[in-house]
Design goal:
Blueprint lengths: L7 E6 L2 H12 L13 H7 L8 E4 L8 E6 L13 E2 L7 H15 L5 E6 L7 E5 L5 E4 L1
Parallel strand pairs: 1-3, 4-7
Antiparallel strand pairs: 2-3, 5-6, 6-7
Length: 143
Amino acid sequence: MPTIKKFQVTFDCAEPERLARFWCDVLGYAVPPPPAGFATWDDYHRSRAPEDRDAWFACVDPSGVGPRLYFQRVPEGKAVKNRLHLDVRVGTGLLGKERLAALEAECARLVPLGAVRVQLLYDGGDDSCIVMQDIEGNEFCID
């Protein structure tokens, strides 16, 4: 039987640190300590060549269970819908009005962080979700 592998989710983006800190707030993730030999992330960034500064940033699940999220700067902007997106699972096990209330409460928490509500997808059953965009326009769902 194959062993389970750890993985990270990588985002192409314009502003890695800003987007990483947004996702820390959304998911309750943490910014890891700066690389060895640096007291702060600012010290690390200043040590890099100008063209390499702010080229990447990461955040981690403080419990160690969830995947590391890695954000890398790319020159091109987002052009089309994501081929992969994150689902923020706040309604698991909830049904009907209770589920919708949990989704709406999470949406209300994320909008002040810079997220944009796109639409509520509701099929009349218990599989509803809210489509959102992060601060760089990447789609994600609250479900």
